[in-house]
Design a protein that fits this description.
single chain; alpha+beta; about 45% helix; about 10% strand
């Protein structure tokens, strides 16, 4: 399973902010997706690592 921080509309964000105030806690919202990692060749892995460095993100190859 792969998860990432949710993109929230203003209504959902307001609801979460209200819950944070009530609880006195900071909350993070995540979305999760089913996915299985895929295997990469050495050249594909090198290309992926270069792209990660260029973009400043972490990339995961998954099977469709």
């Amino acid at each position: 399973m792969l998860c990432n921080l949710s993109q929230l509309d203003s209504g959902k964000l307001d609801t979460i902010k209200s819950a944070e105030q009530k609880l006195g806690k900071t909350l993070l919202a995540y979305n999760c997706y089913e996915g299985r990692p895929d295997e990469l060749s050495e050249s594909e892995l090198k290309e992926l690592k270069n792209l990660e460095n260029k973009l400043g993100v972490i990339l995961v190859a998954v099977k469709k």
